[in-house]
Design goal:
Length: 378
């Protein structure tokens, strides 16, 4: 039996794929065979639906003690590019989001040299008090690890304290590539793989849901990527707390790593392969996201047939990938999001952060059914 037929039989039987299967799919499988298999799993889990949400990004500061070589967003403490948003600016952004009908605020930023732990907590608290309906998806595991270093307190306590203040869930950033052969070269100082995974485990144990990411298309090998996916799959087996996996294509502009001649640099074929392999290897993740800001709109549309079932949201005020050269728009309207999903042959459905259907009237919105469980035919 050809290798791809062997893997197809496993996928159709709902059997788990191995590390070697993942390497074969990435490096040798025909792209269309791979896409067909990923699409099979995608439709088995999510039918013909493709999800989007109405959200806004907030990056309260870009000043960062770390110097990850792939990052174009960070600034030194005294750099003219550096900023720290005032309470007024933060609350204005949140109010603007709520008035636009956003259901979620995505909050991540730098690890400021001088700001205390209480400031990060204050940001969440004042937004939650002012706009209690906005779901606050805040701070990556790297930031939680930094808060622990600032305070000397365990991350589990800090997560619980933020939960009281209005934290709704954790974004998936900061995962990059877990394997130390890569991680030590691209972001040696920040939270290592075990720390990243431990913090997500603790969040899940507290009842918080989270997402996961992988930054691909730089110095990593196929083996590093499959290793990354398997570490996530293992934690998901344990907790079931991950909602979405988001493969993030590396953007080299304005980064130190961008000068590396060995750089692979993502192209559309790598994007689609990564999406499809992720869908197949992460058999216990309900959703795979084609983040249109990173991929660009046409690739995100194609990805909806290569394993992805979500394209993220309206976004608004995205800085991190635009600083690194992303030429996608800053914002898509709901009509644009729905149209690009329909053009890809899928049925658009608005979700909130926790994948409940959002039902809108002229002036308001409410959450409805949990989508993946209730709406997809068995
Ligand atoms: S990726 Fe995050 S931690 Fe690394 S330099 Fe950029 S802002 Fe700082």
């Amino acid at each position: 039996m050809a290798r791809i037929d062997d893997i197809r039989a496993k996928v159709e039987a709902g059997q788990r794929l191995s590390f070697d299967d993942g390497i074969f799919l990435y490096d040798e499988a025909d792209l269309f065979d791979l896409g067909e298999l990923a699409n099979y799993v995608r439709e088995r889990k999510n039918g013909n639906f493709a999800y989007y949400n109405v959200n806004t990004h907030l990056n309260p500061t870009n000043v960062c003690v770390y110097r990850c070589v792939f990052c174009a967003f960070r600034a030194d403490l005294k750099s003219p590019k550096g900023y720290v948003m005032s309470d007024e600016q933060i609350l204005r952004r949140a109010e603007e989001a709520a008035q636009r009908g956003a259901t979620e605020l995505h909050i991540v930023g730098g690890l400021h040299h001088q700001l205390p732990y209480d400031w990060y907590l204050h940001v969440v608290r004042i937004i939650h008090q002012a706009q209690p309906r906005l779901h606050l998806k805040a701070y990556t595991a790297v930031e939680w690890d930094w808060f622990s270093r600032l305070t000397g307190r365990p991350t589990r306590d800090l997560l619980a304290e933020f939960q009281q203040a209005g934290l709704g869930s954790l974004p998936g950033g900061g995962a990059e590539i877990f394997h130390p052969e890569v991680r030590d070269l691209i972001c040696e100082h920040k939270a290592d793989a075990d720390t990243w995974l431990r913090i997500h485990r603790e969040a899940h144990q507290l009842g918080l849901r989270s997402n996961a990411t992988m930054l691909y298309g730089h110095i990593e090998t196929t083996a590093h990527r499959i290793d990354h996916l398997l570490r996530l799959r293992q934690l998901q087996d344990e907790t079931g707390g991950f909602q979405t996996f988001i493969p993030l294509a590396f953007h080299p502009d304005n980064t130190k790593l961008g000068h590396d001649r060995q750089l692979k640099k993502p192209n559309i074929l790598m994007d689609l392969r990564t999406m499809a392999v992720s869908r197949l290897m992460l058999d216990n993740f309900p959703h795979i996201k084609a983040y249109w800001v990173m991929l660009g709109v046409p690739t995100a549309q194609l990805a909806l047939s290569f394993g992805a079932d979500d394209i993220d949201g309206t976004v608004v005020h995205e800085k991190i990938y635009h600083d690194a050269g992303s030429d996608s728009p800053q914002e898509l309207t709901v009509d644009q999001l729905r149209r690009l999903i329909e053009e890809a042959g899928r049925t658009p459905i608005e979700r909130d952060t926790l994948y409940r259907e959002v039902v809108r009237s002229e002036t308001s919105w409410r959450t409805g059914r949990t989508i993946a469980l209730d709406l997809v035919p068995a």
